[in-house]
User: Which sequence fits this backbone?
DNA sequence: CCTACCGATCGGTAGG
DNA sequence: CCTACCGATCGGTAGG
């Protein structure tokens, strides 16, 4: 009997169930990122876990709910980046943002890919919630940039477009980054940080 | 009888067929860009042209061939950008690239969206052909950047990553740009050009 | 978590 | 370009 067995039964069940759902989300995330949401069948997800197709519905409500969970998790990991920014000047804070954002893209590549590609396929109560998180994140970067302009360290004509520009440059990494390659998230941050600062007029 | 009626019959038929295929590609491009390739049925494409589902196969070989034609067209419009770059210094040439690239994204938004999102779903003879075009395009931008470094107008640590950075920033426009908005392709180019030059160390 | 099934829809084809 | 159809597969459910 391991220590786990002393947990109250209810929590034990909840815990085991959480592990199973985690497995489902990871398997689905990988498949969704490779083939897309619509091209991935519920049966294909189940096969990865050695289950029968219908058995997944003992754990999930619908295929769309699985997509939502994946997309929401990715959105929250991005949100955590702006919540954990260090105090300091705009240059340091923007660089920390760049490094943190790239870390999420690179370390959660399947989730990030699904977040970028498939969120539009969510239907309405779900989609609005994700749009909210996306907009808040972009607004946070825009404010970082505006703070730098006020400090006099950035020169930017249109902070809104500049934020979209930077996010695009960072997000696009998901298109070509492959985990086993020559480049880790740290090196990537080291190269991308001066590119971003340069774009913002902060002299690389 | 219009002038067209004097065309030799064969050419007339070929001409009319081309028009029909154009309509199919446009309808399919719009639907693919909105819902994705796998979520768009052949019947949905046919419905846009007031045809029955099976009737499309009088014009096309397969659904995948339609996807390929769309993706290849987009790739060729991008390729035309680097082929028509003006002579001059690296700054001017990069700016022309930025403007030209954004024009394609904005003016061919559905095709560009499908190009970015759905090309990976092509099967092998098709996919290799597209990968070729993508790689050549990225290599061309990389060489533009390297030329600027040699001229002494850019300061860039890693031209390959810099090219990926710039392409990401430009491509991402497809994610938020909406045709009826406040922003035309010219204004977009005017704002993005200094951002790119700044990123490359060319002092915005 | 499995077996067995539901109605719906898919890409594509034959024959006209 | 239409009608009518093919086998395959889809998301999801009932009953256990």
Assistant:
């Amino acid at each position: 009997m391991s220590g786990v067995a002393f947990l109250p039964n209810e929590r034990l069940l909840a815990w085991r169930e959480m592990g199973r759902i985690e497995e489902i989300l990871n398997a689905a995330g990988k498949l969704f990122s490779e083939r897309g949401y619509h091209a991935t069948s519920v049966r294909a997800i189940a096969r990865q876990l050695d289950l029968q197709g219908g058995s997944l519905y003992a754990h999930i409500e619908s295929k769309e709910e699985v997509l939502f969970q994946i997309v929401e998790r990715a959105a929250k990991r991005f949100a955590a980046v702006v919540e954990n920014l260090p105090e300091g000047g705009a240059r340091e804070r923007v660089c920390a943002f760049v490094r943190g954002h790239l870390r999420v893209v690179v370390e959660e590549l399947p989730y990030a890919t699904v977040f970028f590609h498939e969120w539009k396929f969510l239907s309405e109560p779900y989609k609005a919630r994700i749009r909210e998180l996306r907009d808040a994140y972009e607004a946070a970067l825009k404010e970082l940039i505006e703070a730098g302009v006020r400090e006099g360290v950035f020169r930017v004509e249109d902070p809104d477009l500049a934020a979209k520009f930077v996010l695009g440059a960072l997000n696009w990494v998901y298109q070509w980054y492959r985990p086993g390659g020559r480049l880790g998230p740290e090196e990537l941050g080291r190269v991308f940080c001066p590119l971003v600062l340069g774009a913002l007029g902060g002299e690389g």
Q: What stands out?
A: The CA atoms of residues 84 and 158 of chain B lie 26 Å apart. Chain B touches chain A at residues 35-39, 116-117, 121, 155, 157-158, 161-162, 164-173, 175-176, 188, 191-192, 194-196, 198-201, 203-204 (CB under 8 Å).
